[in-house]
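Just scan my protein:

——
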Amino acid sequence: MSRNRHAGRLLAVSDIHVRHEQNREIVERLRPDSDEDWLLVAGDVGESVADITWALSLLRDRFAKVVWTPGNHELWTAPGDPEDLRGEAKYRHLVERCRDLGVVTPEDPYPVWHGRGGPVTVVPLFLLYDYSFLPPAAWSKSHALRLADEAGVICTDEFLLDPDPWPSREAWCRARIAETRVRLDALVDGPPTVLLNHFPLVREPTRALRHPEFALWCGTTATADWPVRYRAAAVVYGHLHIPRVIHWQGVPHHEASLGYPREWQRWPRRKPHWPVDVLAQAPARVGGADR
């Protein structure tokens, strides 16, 4: 029987972390409600090339279009991964894998969604972070790192996310911002945008972190004006594992995270809508299961 019971929707997920068996089962049950649904994937699918390819291939077979941007976990040089890639080389390898699957990446032309809530230009962003989200008590990156170390919240990126060939993660971030800004500036005469990035584009979502020191690895102040400057109808992000929507400067910012099993299993009885309906905030179904 056809699934075309509803108009197509622009849906989003992030932080599905499929190396965890319970998460993999949820992804296996994830299906659209319409043959016209698109799925935006805001990073942290997994660490190994095999896991990332498995998940994106499955989703691309089910949704009319899948748009992906990497999280920090995709960029890790994962112990035991037979494809021992690091930094820019791993990112470019994943881009080519996605292209083989028909999945849109930050390196491809930005697609235009013409379904419900459209038209909007869907913009997958790969920007990283530059340690500019300093916690309140810090006055420099080195001081902030010391405070994070004392709090026991040093991000695993410090050990597994190699910026090669860039001298640092912040240098890689600056290069990505400069390159992406040129492409975004060319959209000035087009429809509104949906900005898809693993990390929040503004500082505000990080204020909900239980450990404010972790904000250091959560974005860059360089993108604070992008949702307004680039006429965003919505922003989609992940990384924080705090699924919610906030409105900032008139723009809805959706965190689309699933998170680790120990986190989503603690959701209250009224669980967040997931996947996120980016332009209408209505729930999708996950194989009929209670989420």
About this structure: The longest helix spans residues 169-185. The first strand starts at residue 10 and ends at 13. The radius of gyration is 18 Å.
